[in-house]
Amino acid sequence: MATKQPTDNPLTFQFVRDKYREVFDRFDHNKDGVFQAEELQKLAKAFAHIGGNAEPTQEDIEQGVPELLELFDSNGDHKIERDEFADAYMKISGFTTEENFSSPLSEREFFASVSAQFPLLFIDDTGKPLTYAFIREQYAVAFDKFDSNGDGVFQQEELEKIAVEFAKLGGKQAPSASEIEMAVTQTREMFDMDGDRVVTRDEFADKYMEISGFASPDDFKSPVTQEQFMATMRWSCPLLFSD
How far apart are CA 241 and CA 243, in angstroms? Predict the structure, then answer.
């Protein structure tokens, strides 16, 4: 079914409902408008990931199916239909009626937010699998945004620039000279992994991988695609990942 692309128009009840119907369509592989057993299991697996279970077992997934039925089977017939799913999700989200609907967001802002928070539901999973190397390269590219002379090393003025931007994220729009210097020192201490008082591109990327909990390529696993990962990072950390 056709997907409505978000615009800068004000967010409406119908737009949100249509997006929840598209979530249903993403898991309704045979397009019959009803979740079959295997489709429910795939949705249950996605919800397990969203709940923090990185590697749900088959038992975890099977236990999740009754929970989905409890959430979305409004008429109690042990089936979840397309409109039933969308209407239940609207209620879960606090959108009870079209008459009472109000939001300061645009369609685009709403979709960016839910896609970033729940990429497994709102973004197709047909993209490239996420890898350790891909994430590390994105952190290296983030370094490049502040490496003005392209020498692969943060100079003092470049460290000051990133310190100011991080201060703004923390709510301080005009940090003092002493605050900037303190932030530079903290940034250098955090990312200077070999203690030579220089922050290189590789050090920045490797440290960010460590901060993100990605210890090594051998241990890396993720259910999301590259596109899903980038949607989340652009929304949660635009300073580093905005285009």
Answer: 6
The structure tokens listed for 187 are 């940034």
How many CB atoms are closer than 10 A to CB 81?
19
Comparing CA positions, the residue from 80, 55, 56, 52 lying closest to residue 66 is 80
Q: What angle is formed at CA 29 by the lines to CA 89 and CA 117, rounded to 5 degrees?
A: 40
Query: Are the C-beta atoms of residues 61 and 48 closer than 8 Å to each other?
Result: yes
**β-bridge partners, 34:** 81
| Residue 216, pLDDT above cutoff 70 | yes
200: which strand partners? 153
The runs of H, that is alpha helices, within the chain are 13-27, 37-50, 58-72, 82-92, 107-117, 119-122, 132-146, 156-169, 177-191, 201-211, 226-236, 238-241
Distance between CA atoms of residues 72 and 91, nearest Å: 10
Locate tokens 């580093």: which residue? 240
How deeply is 101 buried, as exposed, middle or buried, from its count of CB atoms within 10 A (0-12, 13-18, 19+)? middle
> How far is 110 from 104, CA to CA, in rounded Å?
10
State residue 2's pLDDT score.
61
Mean pLDDT in residue range 73-90: 95
pLDDT at 171: 79
